[in-house]
Amino acid sequence: MSAPPRRTTYREAVREAIREAMLRDPRVFLMGEDVGRYGGCYAVSKGLLQEFGEERIRDTPLSESGFVGAGIGAALNGMRPIVEVMSVNFSLLALDQIVNNAATIPHMSGGQFAVPLVIRMATGSGRQLAAQHSHSLEGWYAHIPGLKVLVPATLEDARGMLWSALEDPNPVLIFEHVQLYNMEGDLDAAAGPVPISGAAIRRPGRDLSIITYGGSLSKCLAAATALAAEGIEAEVVDLRSLRPLDDATIMASVARTRRVLIVDEGWRSGGISAEISARIVEQAFYELDAPPARLCGVEVPIPYPKHLEDASVPQAESIHAAARTLVRPGPA
Amino acid sequence: MTAKPRLTHDHARRLLGQMMRIRSFEERCAELYTQQKIRGFLHLYVGEEANAVGVMEALSPQDKVVATYRDHGHALARGVAMGPVMAEMFGKAGGTSRGRGGSMHIFDRPTRFYGGNAIVGGGLPLAVGLALAEKMAKGSGIAVCLFGEGAVAEGEFHESLNLAALWKLPVLFVCENNLYAMGSAIERTESETDIHLKAAAYRLDSRRVDGMDVVAVEAATRGAIEHIRGGAGPVFLECMTYRFRAHSMFDAQLYRDKEEVERWKERDPIKRFQTWALAAGLLRDSDVTALAAEVAAEVDAAVAFAETSPWEPLADLEKYVLMDEVPA
Q1: In a domain, A332, yes or no
Q2: Rounded CA separation B252/B269 (Å)
Q3: Chain B contacts of A96, Cβ < 8 Å?
Q4: CB 3.0-4.6 Å disulfide test: which of B6, B59, B219, B326 passes with A169?
Q5: Which residues form the domain of A304?
Q6: Record: contact A109-B143, CB cut-off 8 A
Q7: ipTM confidence score
Q8: A chain contacts of residue B327, beta-carbon cutoff 8 Å
C-alpha cells in the first residue's frame, strides 16, 4: 500500500534529495557559501548541518573559483561533491574551473579521468534582485561539450534529478529557478530518483507546441489553460535538460502540432531558444505550418523595479498572446 | 624541516639520471619541433630540472600531482613512461592522453598525475580538492601542486592557499619562480617579489629554496611532506630557478639580457650536481658516461615509439567528451 502524497515545496524537495544522497553515499558532501550555519541563501540546506556535521555540509569562503575547482579535484579523487553556487551570476567567477577543467579533463586526458561532480545554482528573475542576481545563463552552459545541464521545473524533478546527476560520471549543472523555491504541491511519498535524459510533455495539445523549461513552465501551463478557453489546445513540452537536448521529443511534438513557440527567460540573441529553433528548422521544416516563434528575455540587464522586471521576461499573458498570434494570425 | 639527506651512490646516480633524462628528452623535442613532428606550443623546462626531480624524489606512489603546461619534466620525474610522453607530443594514440592533450596536457592515471594545466593558476583549486578528498576519505596521500610565479597574480592562487590553510589540507604548493611570467619580469608584475612571504600571509608554513640545487629541493620537500603527513596542514615552497631557453618556441626573448641568461647557466643544476657528486666521490666518471648512454637510448626508443604509434581514428573524435563510467 502506497502512502498518500504529501504537501511539499520545491525547496523542501531539493533538500530531501540532498538528504537522501548524503544518506545513501558517504562520498557525497555539500559545499558552498553559507550552506551550513546560515542554512543556504535560499534556505535549501537548512537543518542539514545539524544532521550531517560540518565536514559534509561544508561552508566555504567567498571563493567561487576556489571551491568549484576543489569540487572538481575532490570528484577526481573519488568523492561525489555537490557544490552549491549562490546564483548563476556568481558562477561566472568559477567559469575557468567549469569550462576549462570540469568540461575538458575527461577528453583532454584521453578518458583516464572522469569528473562526477554536481553543481547546483539558482537562476532567473522575479525577486527584484536587479542585474547581478537575476539572469538566466544556463543557455551559455548548454553551449559547452562535456557538461550536462538540467533545469528541474517540477517537484518530482527537484526531488529526483539530484541522485541521478550524482550517479552520472560527468559534471552536471542543475539550475533552480529562484521563483520555484516556494512552489507548493503534492509529492508522492515514495518519490525518488528520476531519469535525467529526455523532455516531458506536461500538457498534451494539438494546435501548437510550447517548448520551455524551468521557471517559465508554470507560466506556459497557465497560458495553455487560458488558450484552451479560446479553443486553442497547446502542447507544453518541458525540456528538463538543456544539454543534451531531447530532439526526438521536440520533433515528435512539432510534427503533431505543426506550430511551435519556444519560451525562455534568457536573452534572445544566441540563446538556447535560437538553438532549438535551428534544430526544428533543420529536422522538421516540412512538418511546419508556420515559422518557429521565440519568446525570450528582453535584451536588457534585468532592472530592479517590479514593473520593469516583469516586462523583461516572458509572462503568462505575453506567452498567451504570442501563442494565439501563432495559431490565429491577424488582429485578435 | 629536515637536514640535507645523506646521499648514497645509487641515490646520487638516480638524481643525476633523472635530470639528464629530462634535459635530453627536451633537447630532442626542440629538434623534433623544427622538423614539425611536434606542433602547437612547446614550453621547455631546460634549466629547471632540479625542481621536478627533487620534488618527485620525495613523493610516494599514493601522492597526487598537478602540474602546469611546462609539464614534461614533472611527468618524467614522476615516473610517467617516456615513450607515451613523446607519443603525446606527437599527438599519437599511444600518447598518455591518446594524443588529445599534447605537450601541455600530460595526464597519467597510474602515477596519479592529474595533468598539465594550461590555465595559469587553474591547477591550484584542483590540488585543494584532491587533498580535500584525501583528507575526508582518510587516505595517506598528499596533493602536490606545481606552478610558476606568474600564477601568484591570479585570484585562484589566493583562494586556494586560503582554503588549504583554513581546512588544514594535505597540499604541498611548489612555486617554481623562474622570474618571468612569459616575458614579464617579476618586478613588473608583483608588488611583493618575495613570493614565499605572500604565502606566509595565509598562515601556512612557507620557505624559499635554491631551485638550482636538486639536493636542496629534495631535502625541503621531504621536510614539507613530514609536516603535511603529520596533519599540520599545507606547506609552500618557493623554488628559485631559471628557464635557460625561450618561454615557448615562438619567443624571441626580447625581454631579457643574454648576460643574465649566461649568468644563470653557470648554475646549471645538472653540471652543478654532477661536478659536486664527482668531487665528493659519490659518482665516478664511468657513472656519468653510462647514464648518458642509457638516457640517449631511452630517448631514441621514445622517439621510435612515438613514430610508430598509430593516430586516433577520426571516428573516435568525440570519444571521452562524455564518459560512460568513472574509471576504476
Answers
A1: no
A2: 24
A3: 119, 122, 156
A4: B326
A5: 200-327
A6: no
A7: 0.96
A8: 111-114
A64 part of the active site: yes
3-state secondary structure of B244: coil
Tens digit of each residue's pLDDT (9 = 90 or more) over A137-176: 999 999 999 999 999 999 999 999 999 999 999 999 999 9
Q: Whole domain around residue B28: which residue ranges?
A: 9-307
Does residue B158 fall inside a structural domain?
yes
In a domain? residue A308: yes
Cβ of B107 within 8 Å of Cβ of A66? The answer is: no
What 3-state class would DSSP assign to A236?
strand
Task: Name the DSSP letter for residue B268.
Answer: -
Cell 577543467 belongs to A101
Q: Please report whether residue B314 resides in a domain.
A: no
Question: Å from A121 to nearest chain B CA?
Answer: 19
CATH number of B85's domain: 3.40.50.970
Instruction: Show which of A164, A187, A210 is a domain's final residue.
Output: A187
Number of structural domains chain A divides into: 2
CA distances from A136 to A117, A118, B58, B160 (A): 21, 18, 48, 28
The catalytic position among A12, A16, A84, A133 is: A133
Domains in chain B, number: 1
Q: Give the mutation candidate from B147, B321, B324, B325 for the A interface (greatest A CB count, under 10 A).
A: B321
Task: Give the minimum alpha-carbon distance from A44 to chain B in angstroms, rounded to a whole number.
Answer: 24
Asked whether residue A37 falls in the same domain as residue A173, the answer is yes
The CATH number of whichever domain residue A111 belongs to comes to: 3.40.50.970
Output b/e per residue, A80-102; b: 16+ Cβ within 10 A: bbbbbbbbbbbbbbbbbbbbbbb
Are B322 and A79 inside 8 Å of each other by CB?
A: no
Rounded Cα–Cα distance for residues A229 and B187 (Å): 73
Question: Which candidate, B11, B55, B12, B66, places its Cα nearest to that of B216?
Answer: B55
Half-sphere exposure of B264 (CA within 13 A, CB side): 19
